[in-house]
Structures are given as structure tokens and as C-alpha cells.
Amino acid sequence: MTLTLVKSPDEAAETEPLTLAALRHEIDLLDSEMVALFQKRLELADRVGRAKDAPTGGYVKLRPDREQAVLAHVLQGARPDTRDAVEALWREVVGHGLARQGQLSVRVWAPVEPARAFDAARLRFGRAAELKTERDPQAALAFAAEGKGVAVLAINAGDPWWMGLRREWAALSVFEGFGRDIPTSLAVGRIDPGALPRGDRVLVTAGGDAGDGSGAGRRGLDTHHGWTLSLTSAPVVPGGPEGCVGAIA
């Protein structure tokens, strides 16, 4: 005959806290390891900042192409249910690393749903960046043109500021889009053209949005007096005759 030992309610109550304590102890150990790894990464970021060549032409220190490649590598090891959390954590880590080389300043203009645009910019650039709102898109563009920071501006918000990317703000490039399928705002800055991310090219052109001569169609984002802001998958060159003013991943 086999005897089965049944724990009393008092014994079960004593076992549960021990299990919880063990789990909390394991979390404490992981927290200590994470802090040590984070500090080591900051030290390596400092060394990279001192070793790399300083950008010429007044470009900001951001390398969207490098960030895109590293983030893709990081997300390969993330489970589908943790991808958003992993990306948010990674952007915070990178943001603090960049801040060691000088705080990044971001100006946000979004007259419609400003909190949404501000939150998207905060997620993209991290809490180490300095974020401020602007009431005037031209002021945000002028700030970005100085090369000391970047601007995040809403589109389809009643102001065709993007037309200036082919005119007085030609030194600025689009390097990020915010929105799931169709961008609702764009980030611009003095970005080295060779550091733009791989992805859709952003076009500012006169006329419609039927195509760009490469066989690739355009997806319109905004229009104003015969001018169109659109995306294309064609590998057009920024600053070229096609009207490419940047790229988004």
C-alpha cells in the first residue's frame, strides 16, 4: 500500500513564501547582472564615440542605418510577445549611450494629437533626449537645420512644411516615420546621406503620385497646390531629380 502525504494548510502556507522568496532572489541577481552589463555597454559606447571620426558637414551624430541593423539583430532573439518591450528597452539603452557624447535635442510640432507625436518621439529617441514642443513648424525646421538636434513634424496637419525640404530646408533629410502603416509624422535632421536607413524613400514632387519612372508606384501622404509628399520603394538617391528628401525604415 502506498501512502500519500498531504500537506496541511499551515505547511502549504510556509512553502509558498519560500518559493516566492527564491524567485525574488533570482530577480535580484538578474537586476545586478543587467546593471553591470548596462554600465559596460556605456563604457564601450564612450570608446566608440572617441574612436569614430567626427561627422563633417554639420551632420548630427545619429546613424539611422546602424541603429536599424543593430535593432534587427537584437529582435531576432526576442519572442513575438516581447518584441515591443525589447525594442523600447534597447532604444533607452542606445539613447543613454548617445547622451554620453552630448544630449540629443528634439523639437516636436503636432497641432493635432500632440501627445501622440510626443510619445512616439520619446519612444524613438529615449528619455535621455531633450524633447520640447514647437508651435511653429518653421521654428522646428530652423532648429534642425542648425545641426544641433532633430525635429519631428506632423503631416496632414494643415501646414505643407515638407515642401521646404526641396527649397530652404534642402540640407535636412527625413530619416524616420511614425505610424504603423501610414506615417502621421516624420523626423528630419542634418543626417549624413550615407547613414539613412534602408526602406521606403520619401519624395517631394510637383504633380501627381502615379510613379517615379522606375516602375515602382508611389503612396501619397499629403498634397498642396500641385505638390505631393509620397513614399516609394524605388532606390532613388536623396537630392536627385526624383525629389527624394530622405528615407524611412
What's the helix and strand layout?
Elements: H1 9-51, H2 64-76, H3 83-99, E1 105-109, H4 114-125, E2 130-133, H5 137-145, E3 149-154, E4 173-178, E5 185-189, E6 200-206, E7 218-224, E8 227-232, E9 244-248
Parallel strand pairs: 1-2, 1-3
Antiparallel strand pairs: 3-5, 4-5, 6-8, 6-9, 7-8
Helix pairs in contact: 1-3
What does this structure look like?
- The model has no long low-confidence stretch (mean pLDDT 88).
- It is elongated, with a radius of gyration of 24 Å.
- The chain has helices spanning 9-51, 64-76, 83-99, 114-125, 137-145; strands at 105-109, 130-133, 149-154, 173-178, 185-189, 200-206, 218-224, 227-232, 244-248.
- The strands form two sheets. The chain has a five-stranded mixed β-sheet, sandwiched between helices.
- The protein has a domain at 56-194: 3-Layer(aba) Sandwich (D-Maltodextrin-Binding Protein, domain 2).
- α1 packs across α3.
- The chain contains five helices and nine strands; from the N terminus they run αααβαβαβββββββ.
- The chain starts with 8 loop residues before the first helix and ends with a strand.
- It has 249 residues and is α+β, with helices and mostly antiparallel strands.
- β1, α4 and β2 (130-133) form a beta-alpha-beta unit.
- It comes from Brevundimonas halotolerans.
- This is chorismate mutase.
- InterPro entries: Chorismate_II_sf (IPR036263), CM_dom_sf (IPR036979), CM_II_prokaryot (IPR002701).
- One of its GO terms (molecular function) is chorismate mutase activity.
- Residues 14-105 form the Chorismate mutase domain.
